[in-house]
Amino acid sequence: MAQIAKIEVQAEIKSSTEKLYGFFKNQMGRLVQMFPQNFKSCEILGGGNALTSGTIMSWKYDLGSGPMSVKLKVEDADEENKSISFVVLDGDLLKLYNTFKPKIHIFKDSNGNAQIKWSIEFDKANQNAPSPSSYLDLAIKVSKGLDAYLYNN
Description:
Alpha-D-Glucose-1,6-Bisphosphate, Chain A, domain 4, START-like_dom_sf, MLP-like protein 34 isoform X1, Bet_v_I/MLP
């Protein structure tokens, strides 16, 4: 039986929630130019650059252990709640995980501070598969770098 696990990480941001969510929804492919050491290419298959439910994306990336690729589908792009959830369809991740579902949620906390939360629901293909925490490490690195860029522009 599948053993679904979930890990998450959260960070405070200085940019407006609208600006950060807008970047992820409309310009996510720009991460290739902004973080070339990690992202090698991004192709949005079909449609324009904006992410909507059903959008398929193909990424080539490197977490430091060599080139990898992944194909994801946007399960839901929720404008009102400023969240985007994905499901992995194909690629290197499926060698380690039966299912892999990342999600971005940008919101204001109870104190009015802007926050970004990344979560991953996953099911390991076998007990030796590592926790995907390196993906959350990259997500926080990207979030902080992107936040600094958006806040100053």
